[in-house]
Amino acid sequence: MTELSIGVLDDDRGILYTLEAMGRSQGWTMSVTSDAEVALGWVAEGALDLMLVDYHMPQMSGAEFLRRARKLSKTVVLLGLTVEERLEIAQEMLEAGADDFVTKPVKLADFAARIHLHASLARMKEAALSATPKHIHHDTLERVLAALRSFRARDHRPTSQEVAAETGLSYPTVRRYLEFLSSRKQVEQAVVYQDGRPGRPLYTYRLLDEG
């Protein structure tokens, strides 16, 4: 069982109670509050692995909280909470700094799966950001770069799955190299939605000009 420290910011005490109970049932350490400043303090202290933030907050909007939290930490996973599935709201949260969003009412199976997914991606990202050249194999890096150049020539922004198919490398390996290139400002990452509908974001990549 993955040990995680998770914070929840919501003005609905019923939601706080429910998410706290769900998280504890998974063995996670849960911290819940309706005070945005308290939650920002947790982020600033580096006390959390992941933070869930309600979009509709009375004093500080969810989007504003996300912007401030992202300035405080580049590594904490930020998930927006909303009862609305409108594309513009999802886009606003993602642009403010959220990594993803969860719709209410929250179901335990979906909640746990989403948390596990982002915890795994966060570990991969952290490993990529801390990687030094000795952890990156030159031949593998060149295969990824060659694929990205090919996609750029075709004016297509590929997903990590498409890069994996193009190179014949595994998805986790491709994700690690794409995060490495992104941390070096060699690759631009963008979020898109399939069929223009909100849901889990799809990440695409573009190789920047090599000067």
Automatic annotation (TrEMBL):
Gene Ontology biological process terms in this record: regulation of DNA-templated transcription
InterPro entries: 2C-system_Tx_regulators, CheY-like_superfamily, Sig_transdc_resp-reg_receiver, Tscrpt_reg_IclR_N, WH-like_DNA-bd_sf, WH_DNA-bd_sf
Modified residues (4-aspartylphosphate): D54
Cited SMART domains: REC (SM00448)
Keyword Phosphoprotein listed: yes
Domain Response regulatory: 5-119
Gene3D superfamilies: 3.40.50.2300, Winged helix-like DNA-binding domain superfamily/Winged helix DNA-binding domain
Pfam families on file: HTH_IclR, Response_reg
PANTHER family referenced in this protein's UniProt entry, alphabetically: TRANSCRIPTIONAL REGULATORY PROTEIN DCUR-RELATED (PTHR45526:SF1), TRANSCRIPTIONAL REGULATORY PROTEIN DPIA (PTHR45526)
Full protein name: Response regulatory domain-containing protein
Taxonomy of the source species: Bacteria, Thermotogati, Synergistota, Synergistia, Synergistales
